[in-house]
Amino acid sequence: MALPVRTCALVGRFMDSRVAESAHVLLAHLATRQITVLVSNTAPMVPAMADAGAGTQAVPLRVPEEELGRRADLMIAIGGDGTLLYAAGLVARHGVPLLGINRGRLGFLTDVMPQHMIECVDAALDGRLEADQRPLLAACLRLSDGSVAETLALNDVVLQKLATGRMLDFETRVGGRYVNSHAGDGIVVASATGSTAYALSCGGPIIEPHLDALVMAPICAHTLSDRPIVVSARAVIEIELLQRPDTRAQVTCDGAVLGEITPGDRLEIKASGERITLLHPPGYDYYRLLRSKLHWGRGDAQR
Fold this sequence. Notes:
Elements: E1 7-12, H1 17-32, E2 36-40, E3 61-63, H2 68-71, E4 74-79, H3 81-91, E5 98-102, H4 117-125, E6 130-142, E7 148-153, E8 156-161, E9 168-174, E10 177-184, E11 186-190, H5 198-201, E12 213-219, E13 229-232, E14 237-241, E15 249-253, E16 256-261, E17 266-280, H6 286-294
Parallel strand pairs: 1-2, 1-4, 2-3, 4-5, 5-17
Antiparallel strand pairs: 6-7, 6-17, 8-11, 8-15, 9-10, 9-14, 11-12, 12-13, 14-17, 15-16
């Protein structure tokens, strides 16, 4: 992270009253620190941002969304994990660290609570937060017409059906070796970071986020023997649809649509050489986070 921080980008669903409340407080505070604040020019303005009492310095600078990652020294996502994943896509190729303020529900990735927001943001501005580098997934959709769609993902790449009630038939390969022919609603390929997201709901394991591994978790498999597996992150995972009447499927990366896939197309997923830096509050403990979010044991009350 470039120090001292001079420019912050804010990302969030600002029409949500909880997000707007935190954004307003944060804008006023960043103005006292003489920090330039950027927001997307497509984001709706929060009414509180325009309060006369906030002063002109508290009004953020609106820029094209694609410039947020390039121009910011720090990005702050206010909301849930979905908001942080969206923000991760904006900074993925720019090396900008990302801080998540939790105004959502679960909050595996947005781990700063609103009551600690100001102190954690100040610590981030001063370079005092714990930096946690997480590897990204690279997804490449090669269509039969020769066109290619590519993107990066922090959590997962998902192949899923489009037509309700119709299964998909598809094959998987790892490192060029045939693995299985699947029938079901699709498959999740998750990074270690994403192992606590969609893959977990498909019966996948939780993987410590710095392990060099990927999860392949079938979605609603037609046979109980088709189980999630863990593979090396150094291997390339290939997925191809098999011919089936009225087959319609799509590929999403961290919830954003990469494109539709049909028989004859090929989806390739591998670990990217790029990483994202998440910033955590002092005393961050991954296993304490799991205990809290998944309600394990006796919780933090006994620790």
